[in-house]
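From the thread on structure requests for the teaching lab: each student submitted one protein with a one-line request. Submission from student K.M.:

"Model DUF1853 family protein from Seonamhaeicola aphaedonensis, tokens only."
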Amino acid sequence: MTTKLSKRYEGFLYTSFLWKSDSVFGLKQFEIESSSSKIHITTDPTLRLGKYIERFVSFELKQQTKVKIIAENIQILKDKITLGELDFLLLKKHTPIHLEVIYKFYLYDDTVGASEIEHFIGPNRKDSLIEKLNKLKEKQLPLLYSKECQPYLENLGLQATSMLQQVYFNAQLFMPYSNQNMALKTLNNACVEGFYINHKQLLAFKACKFYLPDKKDWLLIPHTNVTWLNFDSFRSITKDYLKNTYSPLCWLKFKNGDIKKMFLVWWQTKNI
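Reply posted by the TA:
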């Protein structure tokens, strides 16, 4: 488990910020240099991926000499009902910061929306980048200034008005197979990790080998030391995924040894 955890952490560190500075919605990225690529923590295997990533960020922050975590995962309640959660309150060079952590997988579909940001959607079309950005701006970040949050801050000796708000927003992006080398203008091109296809295009990869990682292993940098599936086995296994409107991420190994990350999506679009 330690080795798997380390490989997931390595993949997490390898993932780039989705944009630089505050170029998207005025949301300032919290940029630090990682001082350790090895992780030593205990994680709950039942954690969903988002919470799992927060444990990675917590470990990373604790390695920073100029960063001090004041509190993390602060539940803000009203009449015993949870209004939301503040991911991290910290000091960076003595400056108090409210930090929200996000790690996402998005696919580019220019039939959705009218801008580059609006074109990125979740693999199952149930969420999108623009929805997440709006939620950050309209709900998650304003929570710091709510009257319900003030007692929590006072107990920590903090004032909302004196705090900066920043995000730690990493993402893996996937382009249509037919346009996988398209350059992004607003978002960080270093986030592009692969491409996506639907079942109609699968035959083009009949000579390849396939691997279906667990959800938390979507973080991994692809490598050869896995049990590969042949084309027929992969197609058979993924039939149920697609039937249940679930788009799996897989690793694709070509005859020349190259390995790529790829989503096999259940939906159709003219631009795949």
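TA comment: The chain has a mean pLDDT of 94. Strands lie at 67-78, 81-92, 95-108, 120-121, 164-176, 192-198, 209-211, 249-253, 259-265.
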